[in-house]
Amino acid sequence: MIMATAFVTPDPLAATLSRTSAALARPKAAQAGREDIAMIKAAASLTRDLHAARPIVYWTDLIASAGLGYAGMAVAIVATPVWAKLLGAVVAVLALYRALSFIHELSHMKPNAVRGFTAGWNILFGVPVMMPSLMYEGVHTLHHAKTRYGTNRDPEYMPLARGPAATLAIFVLVSALLPIGLILRYGVLAPLSLLSPKLREIVVTRYSALAINPQFRRKPPEGAALRSWRIWETAASIWAISFVVLTATGVFPLAASLTFLAIVSAIAVLNQVRTLVAHLWENEGDAMSITDQYLDSVNVPPPGLLAEIWAPVGLRYHALHHLLPGLPYHALPEAHRRLTGELGDGSSYHHANYSTLSGLIVNLVKACRKAVRG
After folding, report:
1. Could you say which residues form the signal peptide (predicted)?
2. How confident is the model at residue 24 (pLDDT cuts 50, 70, 90)?
3. Is it true that the peptide bond before 303 is cis, omega within 30 degrees of 0?
4. Helices 254-276 and 82-108 meet at what angle, rounded to 10?
5. CA distance 44 to 47
6. pTM of the prediction?
7. I need a labelling partner for 252 at 20 to 30 A (CA). Which of 157, 217, 272, 299 fits?
8. How far apart are CA 53 and CA 306, in angstroms?
């Protein structure tokens, strides 16, 4: 998934993340790139009736998340007691983080599956936070291409666990600079690039993707994608320039602007932590089978409740999403229930399930240390 630091975000080298809740060995069918055909067939057959997106769910969730988030931000800006400011900031971060997570749904959504949702998301969140959907659309789906996943052509993969553990901390901390990067991208580089075709090429190919592979270069958009790109890039640029000018002239109080930037920064850090445990990051560039791609990904299913906060909008079922990328987020819990009940303990399906965020992070750190020791 979803994004990382700024435009192209680094994800260091693959991770051995040992299983947390059930320390189960991988099924033999997956160890040599072979497919767990039974799991793949069951996933397809048991979920045929779950692929329709429900607009009422999408719109209600997005509007409620954005509304609660901006209300929390307002409290963080105007409240006098420190505790009220902090409470408002926490509410803003968590609610707007959930709103942000819908960018992942946008990248998979079929045209008009939820009419007007892309525009609505950009208006409610993408443009105000200077992170329009163009940063993810046309990029994230490459991560799901069977021949790209885990290779150097995957925009969202680098083998994290083959490097030192300190790299993981850098990976997370650098995401705090996201709001500065977005202001530079949309408030400075976007307008300047109109004057220089060479700069424009750099901005489009290198600074217009929420990716984690620094080698990734995106292709320029065409057709309808180009028209959409122009609309939302222009809107984000106008807002970025206005934000800087209004803050510099005192129309926006400096404290209010800094609070806004701090909340966006915290959202980016939270998302980066989630990205850190979205996969095991074990692959070092070779093409992988569908089963191995699934096993390199992470589910954090119920009964735990915290995962719904740090991995919202279906992201707690990230491995299942890699198995069924076209399934809308609200259908993933039911799909997981069906597959869990249908597939026995010997199935690969159960080997991508974990219990806690902390356990995943600890295992990732251990994997890095083991790799460094050789």
Report:
1. none
2. very low
3. yes
4. 50
5. 6
6. 0.90
7. 272
8. 25
Establish if 12 belongs to a structural domain: no
3-state class (DSSP) for residue 211 = strand
* Residue 6 included in any domain: no
> What is the DSSP track for 348-362?
GGGGGB---HHHHHH
Tell me which residue range forms the domain holding 299.
Answer: 28-373
Give the Cα separation of 33 and 209 in Å (integer). Answer: 30
Q: Let me know if residue 204 belongs to a domain.
A: yes
Token code pair at residue 55 = 């607009």
**Residue 142 region by backbone torsions, left for phi larger than 0, else alpha for psi between -120 and 50, else beta:** alpha
What is the phi/psi pair of residue 80, to 5°? -90, -50
pLDDT in tens, 146-196: 899 999 999 999 888 888 889 899 999 999 999 999 999 999 999 999 999
Counted domains in the chain:
1
Length of the chain in residues, anyone? 374
The mean per-residue pLDDT over the stretch 22-32 comes to 39
Are the beta carbons of 171 and 10 closer than 8 angstroms?
Answer: yes
Q: Which tokens go with 327?
A: 């399934």
C-alpha span between 338 and 300 (Å, rounded): 16
Q: 317, 324 in Cβ contact below 8 A?
A: no
178 three-state secondary structure: helix
The CA–CA distances, whole Å, from 279 to 155, 158, 274, 292, 348 equal 14, 10, 10, 11, 16
Alpha-carbon gap, residue 362 to 372, rounded angstroms:
16
pLDDT band, very low/low/confident/very high, at 279 (cuts 50, 70, 90):
very high
Degrees (nearest 5) of the Cα angle 361, 365, 366?
115
Pair of tokens at residue 184: 């530079």
13: in domain: no
Using N-to-C axis directions, what is the helix angle for 82-108 and 55-78, rounded to 10°?
150
Peptide bond into 128 cis (omega under 30): no
